[in-house]
Design brief:
Length: 120
């Protein structure tokens, strides 16, 4: 995956692929027609662009995932923290929780994540 942030429409398209892959290009065209009201050419244009950016692969009429939604979300989150909080996760958490009270369950879940990370 390259240093690329999906736009709103590209995100909707990517969600379709992530939810249904692997799938044929014919299936993708039908899904995009139904969900986005796109023509076949629009579907192929966006697919080609996202293949070039390393999100998906189209080979022999089959579309597969190269970058998962989880990988992309982690990348996007890291990029946001880097740009908005100089890469400081504690500063991000402080800003996020400033006006929000965490439940005991949320606190326990965050502690468990930190403990699982150890020295990573």
């Amino acid at each position: 995956m390259t240093d690329y942030i999906l736009g709103a429409v590209e995100s909707r398209f990517a969600d379709i692929v992530w939810d249904h892959a692997p799938l044929t290009t014919a299936e993708l065209v039908k899904l995009c027609s139904a969900s986005l009201s796109w023509k076949r050419t629009t579907t192929y244009t966006v697919l080609k662009k996202l293949c070039e950016h390393g999100f998906f692969r189209m080979e022999d009429g089959c579309v597969t995932v190269l970058t998962t939604k989880e990988e992309y979300d982690a990348y996007r989150s890291g990029k946001y923290i880097e740009e908005s909080f100089s890469g400081s996760l504690p500063a991000f958490i402080a800003a996020f929780t400033k006006d929000k009270t965490l439940t005991e369950a949320e606190i326990a879940e965050i502690r468990a994540m930190i403990d699982a990370m150890g020295g990573k």
